[in-house]
Amino acid sequence: MASLIELIGNTPMAELQKLNPNPNVRIFAKLEGNNPGGSVKDRTSLNMIRSAMERGEIKPGTKLVEATSGNTGIALAMISGLYNLEIELVMPANSTRERKVTMEAYGAKVTLLESIEVCRDYALEKGAQSGYFLLNQFANSDNYMAHYKTTGPEIWRDTAEKITHFVSAMGTTGTIMGCSRFFKEKNSAIEIIGCQPTEGSSIPGIRRWPPAYLPEIFEAERVDRVMDIAEEEAVQMARKLAKEEGIFAGMSSGGACAAAVKLANEIDQGTIVFITCDRGDRYLSSELFG
């Protein structure tokens, strides 16, 4: 029998049956909602905590602190509890109630502030205090290395090394940075596509960062193309994923799927894989599926 931590990763992929517009292209959804904590952030959270412990940066009694828009916080709350570590999670006040309640159920202290930028500033200040450790997913190489070590190799294996295009939402950018590193080592022709919201759009999990808050781990040259996704596109595609493909996922996953479908219309043939970041039940109190 496996422990909960051993169940993180090795998520399945499902091929789109109805939303794919091109019969010469295959589109696969990497179902990260199947992780124990319900999102892709289980991978990064485990790698950040475990690696810091191995380096001696986190010791018994150390209090963790992190800013999050939701999924990372849930994963960190779950994993810190397994390691008997206290954690304070700082989250925008407009996050869905499901996120806050889930974090608290895992034993975390949750602090709500007005925006993710304010949350990041608060966490930086708190992390500088004695007895606290800031994980800082936005500047932590253990974030993207989780995907270099696990997500990328799984996709490479499960497509029988045939992936031609990789599509990911860009939030902390850890997923796309790690997978890009892995895929380009295997085949430099694999195209890496990142998704960001159009100006004025709000898509949880995807950000158009102000320059001062651009994640330090982000390296623009590792992304071959950035596709702008409108909020309404992401919403409608999340609804279509659930209704037509049976894939119940959040708005950022809808955005990544919208990008994958656009891409399939542009190319003659290929194998596209996009990341479905989490499960749709994280959004039931919002208007996403209402």
UniProtKB/TrEMBL annotation:
Using the record's annotation, list all stretches that form the Tryptophan synthase beta chain-like PALP domain: 7-278
Where is pyridoxal 5'-phosphate bound in this sequence? 71, 171-175, 252
**N6-(pyridoxal phosphate)lysine, modified sites:** 41
One GO biological process this protein is involved in is: cysteine biosynthetic process from serine
Specify the superkingdom. Answer: Bacteria
- GO MF: cysteine synthase activity
**Per its UniProt record, what InterPro entries does this chain match?**
Cys_synth, Cys_Synth/Cystath_Beta-Synth, P-phosphate_BS, TrpB-like_PALP, TrpB-like_PALP_sf
Per the record, the pathway is:
Amino-acid biosynthesis; L-cysteine biosynthesis; L-cysteine from L-serine: step 2/2
The entry's keywords: Amino-acid biosynthesis, Cysteine biosynthesis, Pyridoxal phosphate, Transferase
Is Cell membrane given among the entry's keywords? Answer: no
Which reaction does this chain catalyze?
A: O-acetyl-L-serine + hydrogen sulfide = L-cysteine + acetate
Q: Known EC number(s)?
A: 2.5.1.47
Per its Swiss-Prot or TrEMBL entry, what cofactor is needed?
Answer: pyridoxal 5'-phosphate
The UniProt similarity line reads:
Belongs to the cysteine synthase/cystathionine beta-synthase family.
Q: What is this protein called?
A: cysteine synthase
- What species was this sequence derived from? Pedobacter insulae
